[in-house]
Amino acid sequence: MVTAREIAELCGVSVATVSRVFNQPASVSGPTRERVERVARELDFSPNESARALSRKQSAMIGLVWDTDHRRPGWRHPFLQDLLLGLKSALSSHGYHLLLLATSDDARSRTPGVSLADPVGYVSMTRRHHLAGLVLIDSGSDAEAFTAFARSGLPCVALDVAISGPKATYVTSDNVRGAADAVAHLAGLGHRRIATLTGPRDNTPAAERTRGYRDGLAAAGLEARDDYVVSGDFYRESGFVGMRRLLARKEPPTAVFAASDEMAVGALLAARATGLRVPDDLAVVGFDDIEVASLVDPALTTIAQDKPGFGTAAAEALLKMIETDAAPEPVLLPTRLVVRDSCGA
């Protein structure tokens, strides 16, 4: 964002003069006023945002801290893309803009002081840029940095990872309940051998969905078998490979709950490659309700997360902290079972 100070330096005038051009134009001589206005237009300068930055030492920028290293697939996940659209829309409606802060390993090697491996330096960098707040997305190895952010006093909202601090909170879905609902649905259809394809072991939502899977089995009076739990990474290939492993068991499952729709689609493809029919020979339930869930054949029964609501809740929590200096309670969003064709009747 271009500031009034930068406009002043380019035009050779004071910051006060720039302010008068936009607030008391008659008090500034014609040539000076025209020069300031021309530079402001060329640089898309917003006097209202600049005034906020100068008076409150805070810009209208919200930093998005997210490891976008190309070797990490998380940034490509359809659920996160939908979530970010909701977040951006909610922030924009309140006059704030979302700024992606590069945190990949490549950036770390080139730019000292902006690495999640150096959280103190990273916090200092966000303060120097007068960011109004931060949105934190976990990449699986950011615990130390997230703790530093939460303790810093900067308004922070984390997505799907629990943080606490003077101005820190988080938003997540009810992963445990959603997974338990998926298992209850399968058990209600008569399945007794229900497996699961889980997410990464160090991922909080994945762990919660595994817990919900086990809770669902217990509620249905079914045995929890370790050989029916196969880890994946939330993506299609791991779902395919994991499902092939499950189907190779001496006593293969008749149903599977996948901790993401991407893995569920992989499971569908694995069943087809093995000559099984879905849902006649294998029932499949996913999690997320991304767009592809309704497009595959058979259409995927899944646990829906409120993707736009996720982003909106994060934005509202962050704006509340910015405006009131008080951290709201964590937000737990409900999930919803969406029944389609991959489980039969």
From TrEMBL:
Cross-referenced Pfam families: LacI, Peripla_BP_3
UniProt KW keywords: DNA-binding, Transcription, Transcription regulation
Gene Ontology terms, MF aspect: DNA binding
Lineage: superkingdom: Bacteria
HTH lacI-type domain boundaries: 2-56
Signal peptide (from-to): none
Domain HTH cro/C1-type, first and last residues per copy: 3-50
InterPro entries: Cro/C1-type_HTH, HTH_LacI, LacI/GalR-like_sensor, Lambda_DNA-bd_dom_sf, Peripla_BP_I
Classification via PANTHER family: HTH-TYPE TRANSCRIPTIONAL REGULATOR GALS, LACI-RELATED TRANSCRIPTIONAL REPRESSOR
Protein name: LacI family DNA-binding transcriptional regulator
Organism: Amycolatopsis heterodermiae
